[in-house]
Backbone:
């Protein structure tokens, strides 16, 4: 078990199974097909992301360095939240990017979904956490991985 | 963040709950990035990335309904990304059915929303709003509330305007509020480069490939590119701007680049030179072998990798007038060499409506049509977002389209060779 401390972008708590992307998470590419065709498991559609491609994302603790790609990214993330198909939480090793932040904030202000978002957890976090591990997020931005 | 009395009043609900939520969203957005104040949006026009009436995006349209119902004044008119479909695109009856009945069922309603919110006109749908023919071309130093990754990176880098990589929805909120939080690419410090990219190619690098390599390497950082002026020169002319448009789109979609500097060429690099480079900047050297390596690593996700191409898209982002003219010339020569009258596979070129109208005044437009090329103003990326297209062997020279769809990437020369029948699919 190991703990990491990050910055709280959207507060909240949760415990979920980790899903880890070591490369940038392309929000549009990851969600577009699943959203468009009502995939209940919300499987990742980004063929450029070998870590996540075709893996279910709903309810997972999404661990990532940063998001990349189209500026529809935030809108996509907001829509995912509004439809209650979001990950359990988003945990960034790096400082959050503007698109992910937009999506997380839009989700927080304009929907009743809960998706805690923590950033700045550090590269050590991303090196340590593995897909399938259990992740617990505390209100104070402490993330426990076991 | 320090808010003015007026901004604080908006946040407190002086102009209603919806405006208060808009300002709250912008404040949280700014707080996340350490913004200390809001700054006025100074460009004449905005630009929104959302242009599609997708059934599944209902929550987005619900926010816009709230904004419209609240009667909030839109402080600036705006352009929008291209429409997702058009009758001119070659597609099957089944595809038409899927588009109309299952996917873009909200298109008409959403366009009506955009009219109410302030889109410039019905021709205002393009990802290249900064083209002269379109007219949404901000001045250097102007503050924008735009979204659309390829337009933002172009406005920042080539025009010297200032805009963060805003998300869809947020950019409309900035246009409505008339102010945006000051952070990142809106600040001098945020515009400094943390990467030096040394281009050491023996040939002029393909714009979309070079941009892809840089985007994948620097992700969201600002690169300062050296050695490219050898190929592009030191003046921003039509040809160079078209190159930088495609280059930037690839940096933004293969990574998350919002601004790049090209030594001796882009406005800030010309003015400030290496003073733009941070002390701790890392170095990435790109030569022909590196570009080959990047290209070779693109996954091919066609069911049958040896399938014969069924459709070709050129123009993501939308082509400039000069590019349309150049492609027409190249096709003329290529078809003459192969002794053919028409392209060998269905081919669609996309450009802004205003650019298409200008192009159609020339004899080149008749030539292009006679070669069998369809000229359209749709968004190829949105067009391809359906499972039927996934089964189709689509080829493109757009690295952005490759990134988001199952389209297979080829260089422009390879595309020309394929569609003029010079060689089979590589």
Residues:
């Amino acid at each position: 078990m190991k703990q990491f401390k990050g910055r709280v972008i959207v507060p909240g708590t949760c415990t979920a199974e980790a899903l880890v992307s070591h490369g940038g998470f392309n929000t549009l590419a990851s969600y577009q097909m699943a959203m468009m065709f009502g995939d209940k498991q919300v499987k990742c559609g980004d063929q450029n992301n070998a870590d996540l491609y075709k893996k279910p994302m709903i309810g997972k603790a999404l661990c990532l360095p940063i998001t990349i790609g189209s500026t529809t990214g935030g809108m996509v993330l907001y829509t995912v939240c509004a439809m209650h198909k979001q990950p359990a939480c988003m945990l960034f090793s790096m400082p959050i990017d503007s698109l992910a932040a937009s999506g997380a904030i839009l989700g927080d202000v304009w929907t009743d979904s809960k998706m805690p978002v923590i950033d700045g957890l550090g590269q050590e976090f991303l090196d340590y956490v593995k897909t399938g591990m259990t992740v617990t997020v505390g209100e104070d931005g402490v993330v426990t991985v076991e | 963040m320090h808010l003015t009395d007026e901004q604080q009043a908006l946040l407190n609900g002086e102009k209603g709950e919806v405006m208060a939520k808009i300002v709250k969203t912008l404040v949280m957005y700014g707080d996340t990035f350490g913004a200390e104040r809001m700054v006025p949006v100074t460009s004449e026009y905005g630009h929104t990335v959302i242009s599609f009436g997708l059934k599944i995006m209902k929550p987005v349209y619900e926010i816009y309904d709230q904004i419209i119902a609240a009667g909030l004044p839109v402080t600036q008119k705006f352009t929008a990304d291209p429409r997702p479909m058009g009758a001119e695109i070659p597609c099957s009856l089944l595809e038409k059915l899927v588009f109309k009945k299952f996917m873009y069922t909200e298109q008409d309603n959403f366009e009506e929303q955009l009219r109410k919110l302030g889109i410039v006109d019905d021709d205002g749908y393009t990802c290249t709003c900064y083209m002269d023919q379109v007219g949404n071309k901000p001045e250097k130093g102007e503050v924008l509330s735009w979204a659309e990754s390829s337009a933002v990176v172009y406005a920042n880098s080539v025009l010297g305007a200032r805009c963060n990589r805003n998300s869809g929805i947020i950019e409309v909120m900035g246009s409505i509020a008339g102010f945006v939080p000051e952070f990142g690419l809106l600040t001098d410090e945020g515009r400094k480069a943390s990467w030096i990219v040394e281009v050491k190619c023996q040939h002029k690098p393909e714009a979309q490939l070079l941009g892809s390599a840089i985007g994948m390497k620097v992700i969201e950082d600002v690169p300062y590119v050296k050695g490219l002026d050898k190929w592009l020169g030191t003046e921003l002319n039509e040809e160079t701007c078209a190159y930088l448009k495609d280059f930037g789109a690839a940096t933004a979609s293969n990574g998350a680049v919002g601004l790049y500097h090209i030594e001796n060429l882009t406005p800030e690099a010309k003015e400030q030179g290496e003073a733009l480079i941070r002390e701790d900047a890392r170095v990435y050297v790109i030569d022909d072998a590196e570009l080959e390596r990047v290209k070779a690593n693109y996954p091919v996700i066609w069911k049958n990798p040896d399938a014969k191409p069924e459709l070709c898209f050129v123009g993501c982002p939308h082509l400039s007038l000069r590019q349309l003219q150049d492609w027409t010339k190249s096709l003329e020569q290529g078809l003459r060499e192969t002794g053919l009258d028409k392209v060998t596979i269905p081919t669609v070129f996309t450009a802004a409506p205003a650019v298409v109208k200008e192009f159609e005044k020339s004899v080149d437009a008749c030539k292009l049509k006679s070669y069998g090329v369809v000229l359209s103003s749709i968004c190829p990326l949105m067009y391809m977002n359906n499972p039927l297209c996934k089964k189709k062997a689509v080829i493109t020279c757009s690295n952005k389209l490759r990134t988001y769809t199952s389209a297979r990437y080829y260089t422009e020369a390879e595309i020309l060779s394929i569609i003029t029948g010079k060689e089979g699919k590589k």
User: Anything to note?
Assistant: Chain B has three domains: 5-186, 189-296, 311-419. The first strand of chain B starts at residue 38 and ends at 40.
